[in-house]
Amino acid sequence: MDTHAGEPTLKPYLRHHHDHHDLQPPTSVKASDALPLPLYLTNGLFFGLFFSVAYFLLHRWREKIRNSTPLHIITFPEIAGIVCLAASVIYLLGFFGIGVVQSFISRGSHDSWDVEEDSNVMIKKNGIGCTPAESLACTLAPVSRERVVAPTIQEPLILSGDDEEVIKGVVSGTIPSYSLESKLGDCKRAAAIRREALQRMTGRSMEGLPLEGFDYESILGQCCEMPVGFVQIPVGIAGPLLLNGTEYMVPMATTEGCLVASTNRGCKAIYASGGASSMLLKDAMTRAPVVRFGTAKRAAELKFFVEDPANFDALSVAFNRSSRFGRLQNIKCAVAGKNLYMRFSCSTGDAMGMNMVSKGVQNVLDYVQTDFPDMDIIGISGNFCSDKKPAAVNWIEGRGKSVVCEAIIKEEVVQKVLKTNIDTLVELNMLKNLAGSAMAGALGGFNAHASNIVSAVYIATGQDPAQNVESSHCITMMEAVNDGKDLHISVTMPSIEVGTVGGGTQLASQSACLNLLGVKGASKDSPGSNSRLLATIVAGSVLAGELSLMSAIAAGQLVRSHMKYNRSSKDVSKIAS
Fold first, then answer.
1. Alpha helices of 243-369 — where are they, by DSSP H?
2. With pLDDT > 70 as the criterion, what percentage of the chain qualifies?
3. 388 among known catalytic residues
């Protein structure tokens, strides 16, 4: 079996780069070759020039001060002296970093350089690297297509030789896969080479995983390391969702059939009943470092210190200097023996804010350490935050945005759109979402499928999918109102963690989805308003999803709808592996 079949675009792409990067470097060039005189004479000349000109200028300026002559009035000899002084300084600085001169020479002669950042391995054509002890010999050896030597890192590095040699280097381990982007200076080419090397090492084809059509530069250093392609997830639209008097078309990225259709039906029911309303209850991202002392008494003393209102202003100043958007709100502590967990809460503007909070926390720890020098910082995060894990502290105290969203659904809409009745929905919600979840020992899971909607919206808008864990904490409530003629439904979500800047939000596809909702980027008029609005839209979408799914279960439609919309008609046995 040809393990490399099915890659029609990869090899033409690699061949295209063979033509551009298959260079023919000349023999080795030394930095001193750029100098008109021998190196020791040139050094002596510039040292002498520096000291003599410095003495001359100081002497002239001393005379001007004595004679009350303005210093800005300079003569031609003084101008020449200043120029010579600047030239000698530039040369002497360059002398201590002579590699700069070498890099200009190599650039002019079209040499290509490569640096192994971690192991200092000099790459050779035969696959054997120079050790650090051999690096000097490697550098003095003639530069050729058989190997590359190490320069100063001034710009993207280009590997000499064709892509086939680079692929072989990755396969053999002489070229680390993670360093391809920095060495090649071309993120797409790096992904193509890494992909081909991976196929050869595993003996398995990656046909079906797209390579073309993605901006690999946009993820470098912030979203994903060592890419070999990208996964396609379809994006559907649910809506319009009428929330607080405004209509929103909600993008949902999912591979689960019925999910978008069901949420869309919920949006229709809400719209026909006059819309939903939401309120932001709290906006505070958290981070909780853990510190340790020699005794429990000392841990308790620090707890009292940071929770004392008299010290809050000083702690806020230390915290807030980390960002113009991060503002400390409060600190709550928990003691476990000699260990202290301090849960910092702060606003973070339109960013989700984990990094912002972490920097502020580090500033406070540095400040506190002056008064508590025996404090041992164990970790910047002690899981009392709590991030990406189900935790009662998030369910009770909240994390990120805390939102409640409600709607009153008319009896006619319940019957005609949702195909059920109010009494059945209320009973089902009590027995399933409340009593059933309690029987299961649920933590924040008093709902039908909030995580379905949260995950789909998160993926579409570039949020951190792992934060679906706590962001999906939700309790769904239903009751009959208006003498039993209408249904009141609400969702309360205490820890929706979203942002409209940073991370995956800057990618083209995710940015487009944010733009569709009108929350792309940071709000210039009211910092933080875009991320808060996004949180309310998430809650409103969950409300629609809860309403529709509960209605389907009450009407006995769940299995039938999934059999109709969530089953593939393809014969998977005929799909090639």
1. 259-272, 296-307, 309-320, 354-369
2. 78
3. yes
ω into residue 8 within 30 of 0, thus cis?
no
End-to-end CA distance of the chain: 11
Amino acid at 252: M
Distance (Å, whole) CA 77 – CA 79: 5
| Distances 247 to 126, 241, 274, 294 between C-alpha atoms, Å | 64, 5, 11, 58
Q: Which of 162, 164, 256, 406 is catalytic?
A: 256
For residue 71, the tally of other CB atoms under 10 A from its CB is 10
| Interior/surface letters 330-367, b for 16+ CB within 10 angstroms, e for the rest | bbbbeeeebbbbbbbbbbbbbbbbbbbbbbbbbbbbee
Mean pLDDT of the chain: 84
Alpha-carbon span 444 to 475, nearest angstrom: 7
Mean pLDDT across the stretch 96-106? Answer: 48
Distance CA 384, CA 289 (A): 8
As a whole number of angstroms, the distance between CA 277 and CA 242 comes to: 9
- Report the range of poorest mean pLDDT among 97-111, 119-133, 315-329, 438-452: 119-133
List the catalytic residue out of 196, 387, 464, 486: 464
What distance in Å separates the CA atoms of residue 535 and residue 497, rounded to the nearest whole number?
Answer: 8
SS3 143: coil
The Cα 42–Cα 91 span in angstroms is 10
Q: Is 574 a catalytic residue?
A: no
Catalytic residue among 30, 338, 388, 488: 388
Mean of pLDDT values over 478-485: 96
Rounded CA gap, 30 and 140, in Å?
8
Catalytic annotation on 215? no
pLDDT at 158: 47
Half-sphere exposure of 346 (CA within 13 A, CB side): 33
| Rounded alpha-carbon distances, angstroms, from residue 248 to 239, 257, 515 | 7, 22, 11
Could you tell me the sign of the dihedral formed by the alpha carbons of 10, 13, 19, 20, in that order?
negative
Give the residue among 429, 450, 298 at the shortest CA–CA distance from 373: 298
For residues 125 and 172, the answer to whether their CB atoms sit within 8 Å is no
- The count of residues in the chain is 577
Using an 8 Å Cβ cutoff, are 384 and 288 in contact? yes
Average pLDDT (356-382) is 96
**160 has a pLDDT exceeding 50:** no
HSE-up of 472 (CA within 13 Å, CB side)? Answer: 27
Among residues 4, 282, 488, 562, which one is catalytic?
A: 562
**Residues 394-439 pLDDT 10s:** 999 999 999 999 999 999 999 999 999 999 999 999 999 999 999 9
DSSP secondary structure string, 501-515? BSGGGGSHHHHHHHH
Quick check: 545 and 449 in contact, CB under 8 A?
yes
Decide if 207 is catalytic: no
Cα 36–107–160 angle (5° rounding)?
135
